[in-house]
Amino acid sequence: MTRLLVLTCLLTAASAAAAQTMTRASAPNFSRSAELFERDWVLMNWALKFYDRDRDILLSPSEAQAAAAEFRKIADADSDGRVTPQEYRAAREFILARY
Ligand SMILES: [Ca+2]
Ligand SMILES: [Ca+2]
Hints:
Keywords: Signal
Order of helices and strands: HHHH
InterPro entries: EF-hand-dom_pair (IPR011992), EF_Hand_1_Ca_BS (IPR018247)
Organism: Sphingomonas hankyongi
Helix content: over 70%
Strand content: under 5%
Bound molecules: calcium ion
Distance between the termini: 60 Å
Signal peptide: 1-19
Number of helices: 4
Protein name: EF-hand domain-containing protein
């Protein structure tokens, strides 16, 4: 019983730490989403075409985040949750050719 309680405490602490890490990680990620498009006109055009919901020709943080999430989905060919430089280039070419 005691052992179970300790385990539960450990798990709770672990998930709390994970949640904190995610919160910390999502803040800089947020600004990087916009940066991704500011640095690359191909991605910017694509993002504006499909994710500029209010048509002000600007990517708001939420629009940039939605576009970045979609870009990651397109780019992450092996679904490991990360976009390598090669995957990035491939996705960029895919977008350039298709859109
Ligand atoms: Ca907009
Ligand atoms: Ca990947």
